Amino acid sequence: MLYGPIDRRLSPAPDPARVGWLRGVTYAHRGLHGSGRPENSLAAFAAALEAGLGIECDVQRTADGRAVVFHDWELDRLTRETGPVAARSVAELTRTGLRGADETIPTLRDLLELVAGRAPLLIELKSRQERPISPLCRAVLRDLEGYTGPHAVMSFDPRVGHWFAAHTAGTVRGLVVSEADARTFGATLKRHAALWRARPDFLAYDVRDLPSRFAAAQRARGVPVLTWTVGTAALRQRAIAHADGWIAEAEGVATAPGNA
């Protein structure tokens, strides 16, 4: 089956001027985290700003409808609390200390105030198929209103891109993709179906899956391809060859293209 014509019709390539800022940037994966700077903390994001990096972060919705910056579904690994993030209010979560530093869980609004347009920002929305997507998207959009710095939303869930395309055409949106070694006909069809549903302005691709025929085809027609997580010098070389931007950590930050 020839997917190209269907891709072009159902998920047109973005205006190059709209997405040009995505390219050639090293994005610090969950901030520039390390000793004393937990992942997705304001300290990690401040360090990324100081290093001249872009920033990638993860966002979830609280029980009372706010967007907080946190990766795991459960609090256990990263804090001294236990249980699901979604069961806590924003007041509870912003009082919750992160392990390894005098830092608490930030809100998306806290991050936006810190960055203030000084660095490109990728916001990954964490979703679950059994949950409606609209409340999370609305929480993120409320915080983004009036923010003029370069930013984009992205998700593994194609419903996120679809929602933002319908409700705020000005927001750059991405589809996060991991092939997980699944390159069968059925898996390929599912990737294209996700593309058609999300109508993304860019892809964020698992570096372990590169090179990829799917990613290369989208890139060739003008859809930027970012890649994650570039954590070693070897993965850096793969990223240079097959992607336009790099979501990196550890050795990948020090050696990734675009980072002085």
Q: Could you describe the 3D structure shown?
A:
The protein is 35% helix and 18% strand. It is α/β, with parallel strands linked by helices and 260 residues long. The model has no long low-confidence stretch (mean pLDDT 95).
Q: What is the alpha-carbon Rg in Å?
A: 18 Å
Number of strands: 9
Strand content: 15-25%
Order of helices and strands: HHEHEEHHEHEHEHEHEHEH
Strand order of the largest sheet: 1-2-4-5-6-7-8-9
Shape: globular
Largest sheet: 8 strands, parallel, barrel
Helix content: 25-40%
| Poorly predicted sequence stretches spanning 5 or more consecutive residues | none
SSE order and pairing:
Layout: H1 4-10, H2 16-19, E1 26-29, H3 42-50, E2 54-61, E3 67-69, H4 90-93, H5 108-115, E4 121-125, H6 134-144, E5 151-155, H7 158-167, E6 172-177, H8 185-198, E7 202-206, H9 213-220, E8 225-230, H10 233-242, E9 245-248, H11 251-255
Parallel strand pairs: 1-2, 1-9, 2-4, 4-5, 5-6, 6-7, 7-8, 8-9
Antiparallel strand pairs: 2-3
Helix pairs in contact: 3-5, 7-8
